[in-house]
Amino acid sequence: MSRLQSLWIALPVATLVASGCVVKETRPLPVLQAAQATTEIPADQLLDVGIHIFDPAIPKEVEDNPDLADKTRIYPDIRKAEARYIAMQLRDVLEGTGHWGAARVVPASVESFDVTVNGRILESTGATLRVAVTATDATGRAWIKDQEFGGSADTRAYKDGYGAGRDPFANVYVAIADALLAARNARPGAELANIRRVSELRFAADFAPVAFSQYLAKNAKTGEYHVLRLPAADDQLMQRIYQIRERDYGMIDTVSENYAAFSERLQEPYTSWRRYTYDEITAEEKLKAQARNRMILGAAAVAAAIFVPDNCNSATCSRATSAARYGAGAGGVAAIMSGYRKGEEAKIHVESLKEISGSFQSEAAPLVVDVEGRTLRLTGTAEEQYAEWRRLLHELYREETGLVPTAPTAGSPTPSTQAGGVG
After folding, report:
1. Cα 140–Cα 151–Cα 148 angle in degrees, nearest 5
2. pTM
3. What is the mean predicted confidence (pLDDT) over 297-312?
4. Going by C-beta distance under 8 Å and a sequence separation of 6 or more, which residues neighbour residue 341?
5. What is the mean pLDDT of the chain?
6. What is the pLDDT of residues 368-394, one digit of tens each?
7. How confident is the model at residue 237 (pLDDT cuts 50, 70, 90)?
8. Residues 286-296: pLDDT tens digits?
């Protein structure tokens, strides 16, 4: 290496280490809208959709190890809140399209819908959202099976007053809604009408398995349901089942409204958390990159200082060489120390993120309902509340009909060993 080359390496490197990384501005994402209905859909083809609370997918090791939660950016309290919030965002998109009947967010135990949607959170930060979605109709046919949807945040949503509160990941929900619509459109009207009939008969079979097992068959291999025959139009037992189902829908509406109220209360602090998370992730990644680059360039500067040749033939050359060696060495050490300080700043951002995350709690409030003059207070999680409601519904059905049904079995039409008839 010549003296000229060494000087060109040593001096500029010491200058370069002081500069930070240049972060590219991301282009605004397109604002997508779910496909809207343009014609009226026949009532017997207007399918009701039940969206289960998403699976927060919290690894057990994260539940047990807060330090691991920091590293993975999976915070249990927030994930549990997100599981409700994301489901509600999807419901709002589906409801606004006009392609569906009622769209409700419900606990995982609710299976009495024409189409049931299950979701699992794969990744959720202020920068990225990824979920896996499965949709199945009442006959047991899968429309979407563990399909991944995701995208980057539209950071304009983090600016005050943008888009009337548009969610930064609205495009993800739109993609799911469009996929569900494509699956529905691939089925003829007769099949859609059959799905609604199967849904009604499965609900009936849950309350009176002996009476209604003769109307449905379940394929042991595929798990799909088929209608064998339909009850008479004036079947009194079926009329009572319709009444029971209306009561059940009333309860489901109440649960869904509570989720909606929860979502509304959560929106502002959750959007703020997402914005802070985005800022923290961006700042942390920038600081880590700066720290890494500064330490690399600093090491290069120190190396350059060491290898500056010392074979000058004049006092002027010696002074220049010493100055170059000193400048590069001092600059390199300073860069390494600067990189270390940047790394410590990144740790501070992680701690800040931890404090923000710890502020969420997502407990279900007690639910008070009135049924036939009875005031019932349901407590526990939404799952527990609905399970208690279904138990009371079966009890009410028994009192009204005189039947002694078997224990609730989540809609299985398998015949019971107990006899029963219309009371």
Report:
1. 25
2. 0.72
3. 51
4. 291
5. 75
6. 777 666 777 777 766 777 888 888 888
7. confident
8. 665 555 554 45
CB-based contact 112:120 (threshold 8 Å) = no
User: Would you say 208 and 237 are in contact if contact means Cβ atoms under 8 Å apart?
Assistant: yes
With beta carbons less than 8 A apart as the criterion, state whether 79 and 57 touch.
yes
- pLDDT tens, residue by residue, 27-86: 678 889 999 999 999 999 999 999 999 999 998 888 888 778 777 778 787 888 888 889
What's the rounded Cα separation, in Å, for the pair 104 and 116? Answer: 10
